Amino acid sequence: MSGHSKWHNIQKTKGAQDAKRAQAFTKIAREMIVAVKEGGSGDPANNSRLAAVIAKAKAANMPNDNIKRTIEKALGSGATDNYESVTYEGYGPCGVAVIVDAMTDNRKRTASDVRHYFDKYGGNMGAAGCVSWSFDKKGVIVIDNEDGDWDEDTVLEDALEAGADDLETEEEIFTVYTQPDDVAPVSEILSKKYKLLSAQVEMVPQNYISLTEEGDIKNMNKMLEMFEDNDDVQNVWHNWDNQE
User: Of 4, 161, 194, 214, which one has the greatest count of Cβ atoms within 10 A?
Assistant: First the structure.
């Protein structure tokens, strides 16, 4: 959720992984329900937003039964969840740009929480559009290459053939970029050959900011942690270069 460099900081603790996995599934399910309701269809072929969420769910290893049950729940007349999408923008320490995507049944509660996290850790929540201009909306597919089985030329050729726009290589991963509506079909093709770590529509920064002071780094990490632990927050995008 915290940007591409998250792959350099994956927790190895089994208990922590399981808890994060359960939380991730819950958030993806909520996103799926909203996608069905707002898209007016439970068929991903007729609902590009739902197709993108399903691609995200599969890359996160969410079981197919869970996906099916969630879509059925969203289509059912008994579905009482009343979530809406809302986006908050602001600044972290030293002007790091932050976008918080949330799904909430109580805007007042969520806005209060988000504002509190910004304020507590040396940032401030801004007006809509204050930082989103410096991000590009793209489909982002992360391919695992921990074992070094794949070379860049092969992955690039496969990605472009599948309909992707570009590829970046970082240590043990390949990051494939697509148009937002293409993330589902491209990830579907690539998943037949490669192990996907993530596949979703993301806000990709046009530039990055480095933090040098230990206090700023600590505050930024704590802020992101608070956002990610909040049940209403779906995704957090930022332009902090935390790969050092």
Answer: 194
